[in-house]
Write a structure and sequence with these properties.
This protein is mainly beta. The protein has 1 helix and 8 strands. Strands 1, 2, 3, 4, 5, 6, 7 and 8 form an 8-stranded antiparallel beta sheet that branches. It starts with a helix and ends with a strand.
Length: 111
C-alpha cells in the first residue's frame, strides 16, 4: 500500500461524523482550505471518500461558491496527488504542476 493510501485509510478511520452510502463510500462535512497561486480560500463543503475497490483512495469535494471546479480541482486521486496528515489529524492533499492552477494544497478539516 502506498504512503498516500495509508494516510487515506488512517484519516478515514479517524472520522467520527460520517454518512455511509449503499455502495460503501462515505461523506462528511469539512472546512476546506484551498491554497494556490498565492491565493487562499476557505469554505465549508461536503467531502466524499471513495471506498470501493476500483476507486479506493479517491477524494471528491462538492462544489461551493468560492471553491469550485471553475477555478480549482475538486477530485483527487492518490496516483496524481500526495496525501498527508497534519499533527492535528487533518487531511492534506498536495498537487504539483497542474496546468490549471500550478502547485496547490488542500486542507480538509472534518467538522
Amino acid at each position: 500500500m502506498s504512503n498516500s493510501l495509508q494516510v487515506f485509510a488512517t484519516f478515514r478511520d479517524s472520522l467520527t461524523q460520517k454518512e455511509e452510502f449503499i455502495n460503501g463510500d462515505e461523506s462528511f462535512t469539512a472546512k476546506i482550505i484551498y491554497k494556490w497561486h498565492g491565493q487562499t480560500q476557505q469554505e465549508t463543503l461536503t467531502v466524499k471518500l471513495s471506498l470501493t475497490t476500483f476507486e479506493y483512495g479517491q477524494v471528491h469535494i462538492d462544489e461551493g461558491k468560492k471553491i469550485n471546479s471553475h477555478n480549482v480541482h475538486m477530485d483527487f486521486n492518490h496516483y496524481y496527488q500526495e496525501y498527508f496528515t497534519s499533527n492535528d489529524g487533518f487531511l492534506i492533499i498536495k498537487g504539483k504542476n497542474s496546468p490549471k492552477i500550478g502547485d496547490y494544497e488542500v486542507i480538509i478539516i472534518p467538522i
